[in-house]
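Notebook p. 47: complex prediction with S-adenosyl-L-homocysteine.
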Amino acid sequence: MEQSVELLGLSKAELISFVENIGEPAYRGRQIFAGLQHRRLRSFEEMSDLPKDLRARLNNLARASSLTIESRYVSLDGTRRYLMKTHDNLPVETVFIPEERRDTICFSSQSGCPLQCTFCLTAQLGLLRSLTPAEIVEQIVIALNDAYGVGEKPPRGTNLVGMGAGEPFLNLDSLLKALRVMADPEGLHIVPNRVTVSTAGVVPKILELANIPDRPHLAISLAAPTDELRNELMPINKKWPLGELLSACKEFEKTLKPSERFTFEYVMLAGVNDSEEHARQLANLLNRHGLKAKVNLIPHNPADPLPYQPSSEETVERFKSILESKAIHTYVRRPRGRDIFAACGQLAARHGTLIEANSIGA
Ligand code: SAH
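Predicted complex, structure tokens below:
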């Protein structure tokens, strides 16, 4: 079982070679691809269009799924959080966020995270391991099946954000592989244009992504306008300081499509990074680098062991108006699913017993 191939991480072409290697005709590969990616089936038994003996062989050689759902939490605002386990018993969390015109699925790229951002609960897990392409795809399959039923077409568009646990740019190859698989029109058909990947600032990977033709959108987590403060909040800044990070962003900007922008995420921590001076410093920093980016202000989502509080609404509004007065497009992110520990920075394999009760009738 440990050695078996994870079929959910294979493209259609790879699945066809896989079946041909075991002496089956190519169309079986296409059937299996459709079974996994279009019908979103999570076992070979359910693929009744395959002969029984092939299903039995597949069971010995390969896996149709590998994550198990441990808990599911439903927020009062409709957001759902899934706590899953990998085959080697590591936590994976995924958040499904319904919105009026689309759904957003926030997936994890790693179990835990090696970065030590002081405001993020996931950091406390440390890195457990990077997820495979199949484990990334499976999170989306599980969330869509739970929201709409197995294989049912989602009524709205599906956007993906790589903002769950982990640093996507430390697992970029697997992530890009998963995105290529999911883009297939005969499968999930979620194209890179509907995907945003967020990084704490792994500079070489920003440059690498810039050169990929069919790439997802980019978001950068800033959290501070000066190296001094950013070193403290996001230690990755000591490796790639703001100057290098923003120069890489400038390079990336050259590859944007005319209507495309990239985003800076700025978590607002009361009394730490939310003063008027910080706002001016942030605006000047972005303007000095000539970046036409937009800024998303994220009120901090508090969690017990974290030493921060969210900035007040007035502080966030004042911060926003200073940025806007300096021609920076600024949005305030509404936190979703805070009550079930599903909001940004809250993913740390928590069991929310109280809310779990809520989900039973949902
Ligand atoms: N490692 C990646 C993706 C995961 S974090 C990155 O750093 O971008 C996704 C977003 O959540 C980041 O913008 C991060 O700054 C934000 N975040 C982390 N902890 C948070 C918290 N407690 N409250 C609000 N936002 C938080």
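Notes: The pocket of S-adenosyl-L-homocysteine is lined by residues 119-120, 163, 167, 198-200, 221, 223, 265, 267, 298, 300-301, 344-345 (CB under 6 Å). The longest strand covers residues 91-98.
Next step: compare against the earlier run before touching the bench.
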